Amino acid sequence: MSLTTLDSYAVSLVSGGKLTTPFTYKTNEDDYEYTSKYDLLSNSFAFYNDSERDYSIVPFNNMLRIYCINTRQCVKTIKFNNNKTLEKELLSKDSVFLGSHIIGLNIITSDNLKFIEVVLKNLKIIYIPLDKRIDYETELKVIKLDLENEEQINKDSLVLTQSLNDNFFLAEDVNNFFIFTKENNDDTSAKLILNKTVEKDTLISYSWSINKSNILLITKSGSEEENMNKKNSKHKSKKNSSNNNNNSVKKINATVFITNQLDLTIPTLEFNEVDITTSDSISKNAKIITQSAISNDLSKIALGFASGVIQLLTVQTSSNDIIAQFLKWHCDSILALSFNSNSTQLFSGGWEKVFVYWDITQGNIKKNFIPRLNGVLVSIMEPSFKENYIAVLLQHVDNSTNMDLEWLLLNKSDFKSKLSVNGPLLSFENEYLVKNFKKENIRPKSAIKQKTHLSAGSNISGYNDITIRSFTNSVSSPEILYFPHCNGINSYDLNKNESLKYIQLTKSVDMGKIRMEHENIIEPEILKIENFQLQYEQKTFEILVTVEALRSQQTGVFNNSNNKQDNEISYTLKFWRKQTISASNINNDANEWVLQTKIISPHGVEDNQLLGDIKILDIHISGNESDDLKKRHIFTTDSHGGIKKWAIIEVPENINECWKFGLINYKPANNNLQLENNFVIESLDKSLILQSLSDRLYFLDSINLNQTLKFLQLDSNIQTMSLNKVNGNIVIMTKIGILTYDSIKNEIVNGFDLYDELQKSINGIGKEKISKNGKNKLELYNMKRLLDINPITGDIVLAVNDLSGTTSKLFFFDKDLNEIIFEKEHDSWIACLRWNKQNNFNFIDINSRIGIISSNNNTTASNSNKTTIIQEDQLLVPLNNISTNSNENVEIITNGKSEKSDIDMIMDTDNTNDSKNKLNNHMFLPLFNSVNSNTMADTVFDTVLKMLQ
């Protein structure tokens, strides 16, 4: 094998990543809580100014990004894999899989140089020079924080949770909450001195002032005996009831400490037996504290409740008493509370997705609010370095399969967005990763929506899946990726590493105040998207096809509670159109998607069901490039073996009006079938439609879809299949391997046994992860998202996730499946893989990092890792060269008569122990990410200003 062949592809991570916050993940079985207790913005998002410009440092799980607020552009990116120290501390095996260790960012100055102080959960601090270029070999200063009072702390479970300033740290273990101060030893270590310990069972909430000078502790009021009885009663009851919530109390103690004190035994302010009963006391949520805040001048304390009420406590300096006021607007849990720097305004937000600001300077408190935002408000902060900004952190709780965070920086004068930052928003097939591995199960709990609705597109068969709902690339601009997400599409620019826009294809409720709407609204979910391009009247149009699922909102007699998950879901097929102008105008109104045709229940309804449609499994876009619009076909398949063929049937004289898409051919569903996979592709000459049903591949007449010409019997269920446009062969992935079938010669050309590798993907999660019914495992019915073909060379790429560890492998086959060109190992599981409609592949892993698989003739990926040189004896032996003892039969049906021809079997299951058919797990090199420049770059606007000056 020549090196030229081996070097034909390069694999690297180039973009993506997700926002991180200092969450400490829960260890119990509850998936939701009323509040995270942590101030998510004050520590993990740092602000500074320089040369009359304002900057913000935003942490991702794979990098730090520095944004110039004035120009709204990213001016510097510090990728962790571009430096050996950051790679070691932040991209270790555990941190990649469980999320970043960063819990605090600060800007410090030393020897007239600015450094980013990065505080980690594992008691380490890294110092990164801010204005200096760093490369992979640059040594960064790392300080280890030692514990002075080790005997009082459970070191095995201790993690840092907050860093208020350079000398004040908060930490937790299983049972206690700790306050530490730091004492420097030398340049390589420092000592943490324990100043205060609070039992978690008595701690309700804690917060600190914007200037980080004061910390507020809210604890339960009562004797130790009473608290112990409450604790025991809580452990006895496992019901998820608000009455048993840890924060449900009638009286509290409020204690305030100054953070620069070395001795925290004497509080600055202390109030005992504070009555927190609100006027909404009838509600059980009126006694559950969800958030707290304290002003800089210590004159005001705010408490937020699950009922939506805010209790404002004003401290009388003369008598040291408090006056209570109740602020009412929210109708659901208060998750974010914060005062401004001069204590004249209070900011609040919660489950309604509405930002409310209260003017508390006047006797008559005034309130205002801005329209509904994209997500639930989990944190609000006014940056201390400048008062004209407000930072807001949103969480997209509608997506229960991933921790989606979005950071907004608002201009305080008009509350317009100055910056909006988030990574690619992904919707996984179900909650398997979140619950079992990533532990991202801290989600704010709604007081109204006590029962969360099962995702309409989630896998309900008892199996689990780690793939995402497949993304697609813009046809005109392949660097733009479209990710289906809840009821919209997240458009992401791969080159800029920025989310461009959240496209709401299905409108949601714009307001968040009306209780009935807030409680009962169920929004559709976009399950599948595909797109293609058309030329018409010398104009280029992009067509988007979406499948939406909506769970029934009916109650009463129409509510089938016995089988609610399987039926009562309605599906909608929609066709969208936009005129393509250019990638630079992606956000212009001229490039907005316009709905053309909406088809309700496109495959009909389930038999004997009042509600519930037949489930749509797949969308396939015909490869016909004809100018005749009606010859560009769209296929949809369902869970009962049905196929429907759609096309444009009418284009109005004014092309700006709606185009009509309609059904032109179909194969009816068979209600006796119940399938997880039903794929269709077209033959190269468009004369045949190939359909996979279980372990058979059917050849259908393209004119009459109900006429079966022949079928191919395989030895296991077909997971996916695709047409290789280079040689016209069909690439088929089964549960035990991959093969290529020549439809002209009517024979299997070649195949590879991947049975052992695929078994790791199914059964590698270990016995401890298997549920009692034995169904908590992966089922590879979404392998379509992990296999694709290069339409230029015909090379085949397959991703296989190794669940016995946390890695995945990329297999590169040649077009005829004669040999494996080479293999790559990736450090986490791959969730989706797609050809980008131009010249390379894009893939995304479970940590939202986007990679690129490109030809080395391209310059897209810089400094990719060296390719593993694989010897011939290490390759999987092509199975058509191995003598097998079994043959499979193909039955050809012609004019009612059947003919049989012998076709080689993909593999002999009795010979799976043959060492030649097994992969060598030790022959892969780890994947190194591409190294991009992380120097400070002036924007064009900055350069022009300097020239003018």
Automatic annotation (TrEMBL):
Protein keywords: Nucleus, Repeat, Ribosome biogenesis, rRNA processing, Transcription, WD repeat
Compartment annotation: Nucleus, Nucleolus
UniProt-listed Gene3D superfamilies: YVTN repeat-like/Quinoprotein amine dehydrogenase
Region (Disordered): 226-248
Cited SUPFAM superfamilies: WD40 repeat-like
Gene Ontology MF annotations: RNA binding
GO BP, one annotated term: rRNA processing
Location (main, coarse): nucleus
Organism domain of life: Eukaryota
UniProt cross-references to InterPro entries, sorted A to Z: WD40/YVTN_repeat-like_dom_sf, WD40_repeat_dom_sf, WD40_rpt, WDR75
GO CC list: small-subunit processome
WD repeat start-end pairs: 327-368
PANTHER family: WD REPEAT-CONTAINING PROTEIN 75
Name this polypeptide is given: Uncharacterized protein
Source organism: Hanseniaspora valbyensis NRRL Y-1626
